[in-house]
Amino acid sequence: MTMNKKLAGIKIAVLVSNGFCENDLTESQRILLGEGANFKIISLDHGLVNSWHGHGWGHHFAVDNPLSSALAADYSMLVIPGGRRSIDKLKLTAHTRRFIGGFMAAHKPVAVCGRALQLINFADQTKGRRVTGPEDIKEETVRAGGEWAEEPVVIHKNVLTGQTEHHREEFLAAMIEHFAVYAAAMPKAA
To answer: How many domains does the chain have?
Structure first.
């Protein structure tokens, strides 16, 4: 029954571009759909977006909405998978700043998978936040005003960050609980 699902009917945006980490997306998708969430892929790319899996290209996924017209107001929560290629492409447009900034300004929950923390830095949303991620982006994050934590998963206010490569299960469990807290506080539709 959907009554027992923590995220029943909640609309979650997933921000990616070609080269995103396939495991970050598919594992997040599996657990979020299992809790009843409505999972929508937002991308620079139109039609299909291609993942990166291991050492090569992975599967294609259908894009639900182009980033150029997507609005944070249309979604309750945001997931940003890692993947160096995806992050580098998303940093090429101001739409990324606008979209992420919309979630941050509204204090909506955001789950940032590993290296995707670079997009929070890019969007000027790191300052004053306690965060974690891959060690090689620590210096960049501290320069952006973030307080670096050595834990594998950190929740600070509305933002969950984590080292998903080696702590995926812990990250996913924290994401469900983090999102569930916000979902429980949301006004129910009449």
So the answer is: 1
